[in-house]
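Figure S4 source data
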Amino acid sequence: HLGVAQDRLNDKRVLIVLDSIDQSIQLDAIAKETRWFGHGSRIIITTQDQRLLKAHGINHIYKVEFPSAYEAYQMFCMYAFDQNFPKDGFEELAWQVTKLLGNLPLGLRVMGSHFRGMSRHEWVNALPRLKIRLDASIQSILKFSYDALCDEDKDLFLHIACLFNNDGMVKDYLALSFLDVRQGLHLLAEKSLIALEIFSADYTHIKMHNLLVQLGRDIVRHKPGHQSICAPGKRQFLVDARDICEVLTDNTGSRNVIGILFEVYTLSGELNISERAFEGMSNLKFLRFHGPYDGQSDKLYLPQGLNNLPRKLRLIEWSRFPMKCLPSNFCTKYLVHIDMWNSKLENLWQGNQPLGNLKRMDLRESKHLKELPNLSTATNLENLTLFGCSSLAELPSSLGNLQKLQELRLQGCSTLDLQGCSKLEALPTNINLESLNNLDLTACLLIKSFPEISTNIKDLMLMKTAIKEVPSTIKSWSHLRNLEMSYNDNLKEFPHALDIITKLYFNDTEIQEIPLWVKKISRLQTLVLKGCKRLVTIPQLSDSLSNVIAINCQSLERLDFSFHNHPERYLRFINCFKLNNEAREFIQTSSSTSAFLPAREVPANFTYRANGSFIMVNLNQRPLSTTLRFKACVLLDKKVDNDKEEAAARETNVFLSIREKDKIGVDVSCRPAYCFLVPPILREHLLIFEFEADVTCNELLFFFGIQGNEAVIKECGVLQL
């Protein structure tokens, strides 16, 4: 009977383990109160549902984390090879499977046993299926948690698994579909089905485990209550590229489809979408086309145009959209987010459309965009991003109605190569919005007047504009933390500005020396000198200076400044080939976070040096799980066979990966996680940076990689600090 535990154990000192508790009645029957047991007793409960613990007043809660990447790797190997390391030739394959399983011990055990005894050829053949299909034994266990949810929470789970994993705007997108999205997310988190990272009241990042994502997508593939596979066009969500291609070319989508997530960049060829592709999908709410990205050619085409887009769309993401205008019957009533990067749009829609739900509009790099629609009804719009819209000549006066607008980015509303002039000459005069935090007018070359904006502004970027005056009232803008300006000699007439400017940009000026009044800019943090061909010396400036960037300053020889106590310092001297030895020594040896300068070899003070992009480092003593500090350097050179004109304006990514010997595939944790954006160079340059790494081994492999075709790595070096 239910009182047996209390009757028999109330005077005994006992250890009780209650495993996999999922219902409150189980705790009520066996261990409702601690006084049921003798003094010194211990009760251990395991559950996926934190609410059960809180409901019973249990405050000592330990959240079991995933094993580390290397521990997971060893666990998988124990099941697959009966030892904690892989057989020869299986190292990378074992690491791939471990990553796919997301370090979940259940998956590591099941799939390790599955692969045991297989040949390498069998492993290779099995991997593609593992990426998209869940093993039946894993699925049966994970599905218990899903089946215990109510219908609405099941629906929310499937939305996240199929569309919104690693997203932060789910509450906005789903507000019209669920009674209380916030509560539903917290319930899924308490049941350990998702993890939430709250950055602000409006942004909560959602992370779902890889295997749970596969579970959700597998549930959607099957007919409700059946084992048979549902035809792609009849499913609730479409996420498989092959299924999506079939639906978009054969017009087989139905009213069942409410969301499409298409990783376009994974396509090997091109796809011609039917003009009637969306006609049957009357309930489609979420359309997400990701890619192609930089360096990839266009992949989606609409040879016959597009008859319509579904009227209930709340989210549309479609980079490189190939039409000049959205379909004439496009409905904006439910639209929350429109994201059409690098599109061929010239305009979006005509007339005054209902935009009461719209919160974000991102049209960056849409070089053909000539005008924005009337936004007077977009009273909830918070972010408007238009940088790189080189044909945009004016902004609608309706911007003055956007009382919730927090960020307006117009950066680069000029020709991309800056050879022409920006077509945007002025902002609307009624843009004095109390909510606006961030205004970026960088490279809007014809903007001459200081913008009439709210004094609540926090970040104001005015570099590469024609603005020459700063209002005296700016002294009272208590929220302003960042003001970026271009150099002009008129600024010295506005001493109030010299107390506020944080970044100053010199571009193609004929100056031979930095004007004395620049030293009076008391809060100057970043100095940018681009194309200052006659400048010879950089003198001592404000004590607050921590970043110096000089690009194509062909006469620059001396650096007569020093840094004060700044924890982060950045020095960039690109194509400044006349720097004297003292200047080069200062750049290389100053305790800067990172530095970049012309050089022909790795400095001799680096203990470990090697040709190429990787180097093995043997530490003096074996560290026992400790944090060490290093300085690394990479010698880069312009790629010899790179004669494309566009390469001159393209940047290169340089990244670092560290692995401990014998731990194949497991990257060492670095702080910060380095990935450098390197501008175009004319010949050899040296990149130097410092970082911390958590290591447990005295043999480390440092690998430096490049993303892009504009530079090559000639040498590298490492120094333990």
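Figure S5 source data
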Amino acid sequence: RNYYGGNWASFSFSGLLSWIKENQQKTDLSDDCEDWRKLILEDEEAIPLSRKDKTIQHVEDFCFGDQDSAEGVEEAGALPKLPVFGASGAQEVSAGLEKECPAVQSPCSDTEPEGATEGSGAGPTPGSETSPGESPVQPEHTEAAPAETASQEPKKVTYSQIVREGRRFNIDLVSKLLFSRGLLIDLLIKSNVSRYAEFKNATRILAFRKGKVEQVPCSRADVFNSKQLTMVEKRMLMKFLTFCLDYEQHPEEYQEHESSTFAQFLQTRMLTPSLQHFILHSIAMVSETQGTTLEGLQATKKFLQCLGRYGNTPFLFPLYGQGEIPQCFCRLCAVFGGIYCLRHPVRCLVVDRASGRCKAIVDHFGQRISANYFIVEDSYLSEGTCTNVCYRQISRAVLITDQSLLNTDSEQQVSLVTVPPVALGSPAVCVIELCSSTMTCMKDTYLVHLTCPSTQTAREDLEPVVQKLFNVNAEKETENEELEKPRVLWAVYFNMRDSSGVEKDSYDGLPSNVYVCSGPDSALGNDCAVKQAESIFQDMFPTEEFCPPPPNPEDIIYDENEIEPEESALSNSAEAKPESSAEESNSGEGAAVTKE
């Protein structure tokens, strides 16, 4: 690939259009040049790798405006001498350049001072939560501009504007939020990777009930300030949430319901239907038909424990999109000598017949790279290796809309909605709505992500939910402006492979020192990826600490034997430029190496 992160990547709008075009092409790449097979010795055998990523299927995109008007329109803000990250077919941005020149990724022109203020503002930093005796972290101020009054006509955004402002979009292939006390936040703090990223609070949890979107009270203050709950309901809700925080101490309250679903358990707790809906779909977020009582109690407790660390909801979202997270780890890796190669295909794994261990890889230059351990993402494995693997699928949709699902005084809201199953047998759908201050979309638009486990194609799974929440007609038809749904300007549907539950034994013929990591899963959080990374690391290096805190540069003590060669190399470089290494001379334009 020519972009970071695989299926965890983020794209500009033009980059996503290129990605869509690539994945809609059905042509498979034939191995027209098999010179690399000559490099395999008699006592070795090769395990060929896949030439094409087959993890994305059923890609369908729709424009609900005048697409012809965008012909000839170019992306604004392009800097000719600087590379563009995210566009498939464009050059990549080096790790250091992205933070030194933030305008490359999301330029802030004079027409949008609010975006500049909000994007550069200090959002909550993991590790800086409030503790006794300290001043609390101030949440990001998201109301830099006065909100439009109800009497003002909303600005109509055209498709040509979206194309022109395409660099303001950072569209994630996978949609997730970070639990404020989740494994990924803990890892970001421990490893100090959090210094490379900024985060914004998810500002509200919404519910879709009886055809309407309404806000869910989460914290104690929200509950008692809520106008949609009666005083009796407020007491009921607080009593139940207090029980969930230490439910392990009261097994008599739930043991006889352990074989029941969480939905059935809630019906025994003297809760009104609206409270049951809020708890099941918006707080616990477990399946109505499959989520057990214990799963529901555990999920509710996790939700409540994450409240208040950085804001009034349990969730954080990284500015510039989820695709920033893998890049942040790459930056720290680069500081300590790691190299990330783009546009550098690998042809095969080389296995020693005698030991059965993998000893090297062969790239598309015919270059052998030897190592003791090899970590490969599932999508690189060929169909022959994955014969016995049964994959799940994720249904995804990304929408660009003209207004929020629930309009309030502030336009800058990050919202989470769980839509219950629209039909028997269909899954619940997780909806994340992002505003422009997350630096993922242009002003006057919202970026909406829909995700659920697949039962059909992504469009078949998600289009019924889109039609319930949004207006998909090209022109506004509703007379009542207050009740009007947000209008969809552009949409894409696609299915993504979920390989998170596949055991290594399921793959045929993989050596013991080859480790397989999965792509994204369908869960809202990132715990699965963190657990998998730590498990692979501990298998390789059982005595080492996983992602230890890096030393400060000024605390590093160099050995004298290491310093002397460096000093001599520096003195020689003043006289003559060093020759390129063999790897650099072989790579040509086919691989890009990013180092800090």
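The first strand starts at residue 10 and ends at 11. The CA atoms of residues 103 and 580 lie 32 Å apart.
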